[in-house]
Amino acid sequence: MILVTVGHKEFDRLIKKMDELVNKIDDEVVMQIGDRPKYVPKNSKCFRFLTREEIDNYYREADLIISHCSVGVLLRAQKYFKPIIVVPRQYALKEHVDDHQVEFADMLIEQNNIQGINFIFDIDELGDTIERMLQDKKGFAMKTFGERECLINTLKDFVFDLYKPTEKY
Asked: Phi, psi at residue 145, to the nearest 5°?
C-alpha cells in the first residue's frame, strides 16, 4: 500500500498527479488530502484527516510514503522504517508562503547519508521514482542512533538558520 499525506494544507499538484498514476500502480493507494483541497481523487481511497492512532496504522501498513517536505512525516517514516518520496511545496507554484520546504529538502540532500528518501522537484518524475522505490524495497535506512542524530542536527541547523535575526536592532 502507498500512503500519500499532505498535512493540513491542500497540495493539489501532488494529489492530482497521484490520482493520474493510481491505475498504473499495482499497489493500493490511500491519500490524506488536507483541509480544503480543490481537487479530490477519483481513483483511490482518500480522507481529509484521521486520528493519530488511525494514521499510524496506515504508516505501519504502507510499503511507501509520499509526502510534502514535513519534519513530522519524515520522523514518522523513520519511526516505522518506511521509504519515502518527498515532494516539497514550491513558492513559485503558489503552494506555500515561502520556499522553506525546498530549502529543507536541499539541506537533507546535502547530508547525502540518508537512504530510503527520494526528493522530487519535478512532479513528472514521480511515477518512475515510485516504481524504482517499490522494486528496491528499502526501508527508511536511518536505523542507527548516529543517522537519527544526523537528521535531528540537520533539523536544528535548518530551524536556527531560518529564524536567526538578520539585523541588529
From this structure: -60, -45
- Domain 2-163 carries which CATH code? 3.40.50.2000
In angstroms, the Cα distances linking 81 to 107, 115, 135 are 21, 11, 16
Quote the CA–CA distance of 53 and 69 in Å, as a whole number.
Answer: 22
Segment 138-148, tens digit of pLDDT: 555 544 444 56
Is the pTM higher than 0.90?
no
Provide the grid cell at 105.
529538502
Nine-digit cell at 156?
536544528
Report pLDDT for 159.
Answer: 64
The answer to whether 112 and 154 are in contact (CB under 8 A) is no
All residue ranges of the chain with pLDDT < 50 are 142-146, 169
Closest C-alpha among 161, 155, 157, 163 to residue 78: 155
